[in-house]
Amino acid sequence: AVLDHAGDNEFYRWCLGLNAPGHHVKMILGETAALAAVLGVYAALCLKVRAGMLGNVLWVLAILEAGNLSLSLNWDQCGYVVPALCVASLFLLLWELKTKGFSKAQPLPLLWGVFSLALLAKLGIYPRLWHYGFVLAMPAFLTGIYFLVWQLPSLLERHGAKTVYFRAAVSLALLIGFGHLWLDSKFAYDQRTASIGQGADRMLAYRPAFLPSGATMGRVADWLQTNTPPNRTLAVLPDGSMLNYLLRSDNPTGYLRWNLAESTVFGQDKMNRAFMDTQPDYIVLVDFNISQFGLKPFGQDPRDGLELKKWIDAHYLSVYQTGPPVATVYQRSSLQRQSLAISSGAPSSLPPPAAR
User: Fold this and answer.
1) Distance (Å, rounded) from C-alpha 35 to C-alpha 75?
2) DSSP H or E segment with residue 196
3) What's the half-sphere exposure (Cβ side, CA atoms, 13 Å) at 92?
4) What is the spatial distance between Cα 74 and Cα 182, in angstroms, rounded to a whole number?
5) Quick one: which of 40, 199, 224, 244 is 20 to 30 A from 331 by CA?
6) Core vs surface per residue 97-112: b (16+ CB within 10 A) or e
7) Cα 331 from Cα 287, distance rounded (Å)
8) What does residue 234 show for φ and ψ, rounded to 5 degrees?
9) Alpha carbon 348 to chain centroid distance?
10) Tens digit of pLDDT for each residue in 45-96?
């Protein structure tokens, strides 16, 4: 997709941070410098403050301040410091490997660190824990925790520091951050109250006032379940293969999604031909907002299904519509004529459908 210039699309540029590189580089450097300064202060406290009543009081105040700082942070942006934490972790592991020899090597943390950076690189210069970062940044986030709670305190201990308070301060800050991220996640999941499917297939989608597409697709599934035969074939454009699962309906085209990346990789002509050759009994067209790709809804742009939409209009009839977003069920015209001929008792002049 990148070689075929799909990476020039605004959405993918946003994903990689290339739409605002100066801003993201500034955030990475600024957030990393701030974290390094805070860690430097707490490391100095470990090395300078001695045991005793005064030292204990000072550390209690420092731990409380760590919690206060954590409460004031925007944890949605904590991904900006993750690359530096990964690099620091790998540096310490490689330094230990060089100074202690291969017999003292720690292969698992080393391999995990390399793996973390490799996945993190796919986020470009916009490292984040949400969106694609839920998967791509999570190993790096764990590497950062390993560095903060184990590697850095261990390094300080080798220089004579007692790090129990340091670990307490870091742990408190991280726990507050975890709580913030958990509340964000909980808010999103709390919006899933719309029931879709039946029995073991039942699932919860977002309530219509929050994001109406799930409830809309549920209505489409109910209509198809009630008004179409069980052996129907079905394709959903540009996305919605969950309907195929809920209805146990095959998609004969071989393409479960139609988006810019897939049409670039496979080619629109090939995808068009798959629909024209297999002719699904029903096609569901959903007007999803895909403006992030710089495109109008499916079928309104030559780069995104305009030719296929014209073919659908010529060979299919609209039989059901709901929304928002607008979802239209199309039935193959020849299938409808066959149904009318059978219901009237007249022999059909249409050839049987091609074997699939």
Assistant:
1) 13
2) strand 192-196
3) 19
4) 13
5) 199
6) eeeeeeeeeeeebbeb
7) 17
8) -145, 135
9) 49
10) 998 887 788 888 999 999 999 999 999 999 999 999 999 999 999 999 999 8
